[in-house]
From TrEMBL:
It comes from Catenuloplanes atrovinosus. InterPro entries: Homeodomain-like_sf (IPR009057), HTH-type_TetR-like_transc_reg (IPR050109), HTH_TetR (IPR001647), MT1864/Rv1816-like_C (IPR025996), Tet_transcr_reg_TetR-rel_C_sf (IPR036271). Residues 9-69 form the HTH tetR-type domain. Pfam families: TetR_C_33, TetR_N. It comes from the Bacteria. GO terms for molecular function: DNA-binding transcription factor activity; transcription cis-regulatory region binding. The keyword Transcription regulation applies. Keywords: DNA-binding, Transcription, Transcription regulation. This is AcrR family transcriptional regulator.
Amino acid sequence: MTSRMESAAATRRALLEAADALLDLGGPEAVTLREVGARAGMTRGAPYRHFADKETLLIAVGARAWQDIEERARALAADPALTPAERLRANLAAVVDIARTRPYLYELMFSRPAGDPEALVRAARGSNEVFVETVAALVGERDARRYGALLMAGVDGIANLEAGGQLDGEKWGTSADELIDTLVAMVARHGANG
């Protein structure tokens, strides 16, 4: 027999999955609480029992994405077959992959919701700590946060240039993957030269 808490958690998961799908289809404008309820096969009012408003729902979607990144980063960190540089590359590539395959989610993850501007910053803390540990394995504890911020700024720029079709062709003649490799090599060189 399913407990009331398990049922509520399952309903919440279904609502988040529906919101996730709607976000992918048409961005934040496509996500309405009523449509989320309908898409989840529930009453259109069901989401209102779990989320105060659309912004709260979208924050939950973004927070869940950050949790997924953290879980992936922890799995990479625990893989003894990977070098620190390979772990770093995989983490950066995961960010670009989200920007490539789920651009609305990517934008949401890095947004500052009006009602709680720090909500997604808080949601990203766990993945950020794992990322900083990954960077520290290459450059040391002292420089890890500075290099981590530089890497995230760089990968965000790479993702945006790629999304705008600015990387390949005559303008830059490169790819996101080549630029990620370059970032990792630069950081690894710094670590080696310490």
